[in-house]
Write a structure and sequence with these properties.
The chain is of the alpha+beta class. It has helices at residues 2-18, 26-53, 59-71, and strands spanning 82-86, 103-105, 114-122, 128-145, 160-166, 185-186, 201-202, 212-219, 222-230, 239-244, 250-257, 260-263. It has three domains: 59-137, no CATH class; 139-202, Antifreeze-like/N-acetylneuraminic acid synthase C-terminal domain (Type Iii Antifreeze Protein Isoform Hplc 12), CATH 3.90.1210; 212-263, SH3 type barrels, CATH 2.30.30.760.
């Protein structure tokens, strides 16, 4: 009897330990409620947000209009090594949605090169105009000096080299064909890597001071010539003074060719 009672107590204890109180059902109810609220919020708030977005012109559409205008401009289209970038527009900008295709134009004074501005305009229902900053970059090959050169130097192919330059950073006309430079004479001293432009070059002298030349003159279809001495040098087209050997008279004329001057 004593042993059985002890076993009974053990069994009773074991059963009481293994029992668990029933879990309340309200946590599942809260989860379901939260999920339902999330779905309802999505159904209500999302259409409202979309409706609000549709009230305003998107920034991307404005930038796309400016990009298209520049890339199809006659001064840019087909130009090699050219990139177009549209600068940032404040995303907080709220312009009424345009009911028609956006108009684009180049403001007065703006150029399709370097830092520029594109006008983007809406005509209706609520007109507005926005000026969009942009940058047009063109990289081209230009001729520069390959060594320091002095005034009066006759240019050779070894004096020049091609370098890549951003054309928007060039303040003067530039040359890219060696034929435009070789054989020309420098009008000023140039440092190494100096940009070559028409302004620093001149044609070589084909008549020099003290040279005997043929002085020609014509009037009413009658042409005459006389020997003369050049009092100054010059290139084709330059005006120089010469002295008529026969009369001793000093006249001015234009150089026609090597050794030939036409008097006024």
């Amino acid at each position: 009897m004593t042993i059985k009672q002890r076993n009974a107590k053990k069994m009773t204890f074991s059963l009481s330990v293994s029992r668990r109180p029933p879990q309340p059902a309200f946590p599942l109810t809260l989860v379901a409620l939260a999920l339902a609220l999330t779905v309802i919020s999505a159904l209500i708030i999302t259409p409202l947000a979309q409706a609000k977005d549709n009230q305003y012109q998107s920034i991307d559409s404005i930038k796309a209009a400016a990009q298209t205008f520049l890339s199809t401009h006659s001064n840019v289209e087909g130009r090699a090594n050219t990139t177009i970038s549209i600068e940032n527009i404040d995303n907080r900008l709220t312009l009424p949605a345009c009911g028609t295709t956006l108009d684009t134009f180049l403001p007065s004074g703006a150029k399709v090169q370097g830092k520029t501005t594109v006008g983007v305009r809406c005509q209706s229902p609520k007109p507005w105009t926005l000026y969009v900053p942009a940058n047009v970059t063109t990289i081209t090959q230009v001729l520069v000096t390959s060594t320091p050169l002095r005034r009066g130097h006759v240019m050779t192919a070894g004096d020049i080299s091609l370098h890549s330059k951003n054309t928007s950073q060039l303040n003067a006309a530039y040359l890219s064909n060696p034929d435009q430079v070789v054989g020309k004479v420098l009008k000023k001293n140039l440092a190494n890597k100096a940009l070559l432009t028409p302004a620093v070059l001149t044609e070589p002298h084909i008549i020099h001071k003290g040279q005997h030349v043929d002085l020609r003159a014509g009037l009413g279809g009658l042409n005459v010539s006389a020997p003369a001495i050049a009092l100054m040098g010059g290139a084709v087209g330059d005006r120089i003074r010469v002295k008529n050997v026969s009369s001793g008279k000093i006249v001015e004329g234009a150089i026609l060719a090597s050794g030939v001057v036409r008097a006024d």
